[in-house]
Amino acid sequence: MAIDVRVCLNQSEDNFFGYQPGAPLSEVVAFALSEELVGEIAGGIPARALELVFDELNVDDPTTEWALRYRLDRNRSISVGDVVIVGDKAYAVERMGWQPVSLVADQITRLPNASHAG
């Protein structure tokens, strides 16, 4: 079974200071990861899955189809203040690691050129 993952880039002017509740987000790519990968919990978060997403969206030569689409859409690297939604839980990129966050639907917009699997 696969778990849905969505990547949202923080659009606030001060996003590099970290995620702030209510910050405007743009959903730029969606894909699925294996339940096994997402199920590896460390410190209350799916650390291995989040690190895979972070690594793939920050390397020059990504190895996954979804990360290649992300780069072809000319998105910037994922960084502090951006959010990754895994299933029904959201996690913001911190300077070191990840912080669980709560989102509301109207703070997320889906960009017209966003890549979505399925």
Give the amount of beta strand, in percent.
25-35%
For the record, the count of structural domains works out to 1
Number of strands: 6
Helices and strands, in N-to-C order? Answer: EEHHHEEEE
Count of alpha/pi helices = 3
User: Sheet bearing the most strands, described?
Assistant: 6 strands, mixed
What's the pLDDT, averaged over the residues? 90
Percent of residues in helices comes to 10-25%
Question: Looking at the structure, what is the overall shape?
Answer: globular
Major sheet: order of its strands? 5-4-3-1-2-6
Structural class based on helices, strands and sheet pairing:
alpha+beta
The Cα radius of gyration reads: 13 Å
End-to-end span in angstroms?
14 Å
Unreliable spans are: none
Describe this structure in words.
- With 118 residues, the protein is an alpha+beta fold.
- The chain has one domain.
- It has helices spanning 35-38, 47-56, 65-72, and strands at 2-10, 25-34, 83-86, 89-93, 98-101, 108-116.
- A hairpin with a 4-residue loop joins strand 4 and strand 5.
- The two termini are 14 Å apart.
How is the secondary structure organized here?
Elements: E1 2-10, E2 25-34, H1 35-38, H2 47-56, H3 65-72, E3 83-86, E4 89-93, E5 98-101, E6 108-116
Parallel strand pairs: 2-6
Antiparallel strand pairs: 1-2, 1-3, 3-4, 4-5
Features of the shown structure:
single chain, about 120 residues, alpha+beta, six-stranded mixed sheet, 3 helices, about 20% helix
